[in-house]
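Throughout our pipeline, every protein is held as a single compact record rather than as scattered files. Such a record has a labelled line for the sequence and another for the backbone structure tokens. The remainder of this section carries one protein's record, kept here as part of the documentation:
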Amino acid sequence: MLRTDLEHFLKELYHYERFEDYCQNGLQVEGKEEIRKIVFGVSFNLPFLQKAIEAQADAIIVHHGIFGKNFFTVKGVLKERVKPLLQYNISLFGIHLPMDAQEQHGNNAQLLSYLDAEVLEPYDLGFIGQNTQEHSLSRILDIFHEKLHPAGYQIPPVERSLASILTPKQQHGFVLFDHGPQIPRKIAIISGGAAGKYRSEDLLSKGVDTYISGSVDEATPAWSYETKTNFINLGHYWSEKSGPLALQQEIARLFDVKTEFIEVENVI
């Protein structure tokens, strides 16, 4: 396929113009016009780029690309990341907030779909859904483990050395504060660094009893205890893997081009 066709397809799918973002969404570094292979991932960095070069990629699509909007200073770490792109003539596409909010192929829509939950309404960059399958908290974490972690992925069990009501549980490396119902009824999901949005009277008024995100902060445990709600931290990386995976599947379905997802595991 042609780079210009890919650029147009992504712009139409994600509607960049609707978002005030921290970066320029879409094509960030221009490579060759003819694209035979696209690799997908969560974040653009040197370990990812080295794997992309080994995979003989013509284009890269990631959720976390190059951040910054009004600059023409390419030095230091950024220079070392960009130099191989230019050397190998690889295009880089970064799609940030639009990939969180996209109604079908976005990170948050996909996470809800893993649970076969009914989408009730959009909320911020995410969604609120009904746990129609009546999955327990433990089963929800099992599902995310099966969908997001690569085969054979194991996290050693963590001993709870602190006898505190605010100490979290862990399952498959995911962090859980389970002060709400063991079978959630209404779930809110906002991927990435959205822990602060959990502490919302608005969510409580909507009947949300379980919040899923990709980060956690100091105030989270007490809010979970005081509001009798659940909080799940999948980790920033894992919570934002589902969108790139869904996009890979959609592009492979629509276009005659090779695709590959490149995993660079990050427990954060």
In short: The radius of gyration is 19 Å. The domain at 3-96 is CATH 3.40.1390.30 (Udp-n-acetylmuramoylalanyl-d-glutamate--2,6- Diaminopimelate Ligase; Chain: A, domain 1). The mean pLDDT is 95.
